Structure of DUF4345 domain-containing protein:
Amino acid sequence: MRMLLFLGVAAVYLLITFQVLRRPSSVMQDVGLRFDNINGLSEFHAIYVGIWSVTAAMLIYSAFFPEERALAVFAALMVLAQPIGRIVALFRGGLPRGKMQLMFVLETIGGLWLCFLA
C-alpha cells in the first residue's frame, strides 16, 4: 500500500509536469494564472517543472527504498507545502475557488497520508 501511494502521488506530479512542458498556457489557465512577462513564466516553470519533478523523484525513490525514512518524510512535507501555502493565502485573500479547492483537499489528504506511511 505504501509503495502504491508514493508512486501514485509521484505519477500525478509527473503528469502535471509533462502537461506543463506540452501546454503551459493550458495549465496556467486551469489554475488561474496569467503572466505578461518572462519572470512570471520562469517562476511558473521553476515550480511546476523543477520542484514538482524533483518531488516526484523523491517519492519514487522513497517507494522503492522504504528504509530511507527521512527522504520519505521530506517528500511528504514537499507535498504538504502546497496546502500550507494555500492556508497562508486563505488569510490574505480567502478560499481558493473551483479546481483549486479540490486540489487543496487532495494535497492535504495525500500529504498527511504520505507522512503517516513514511
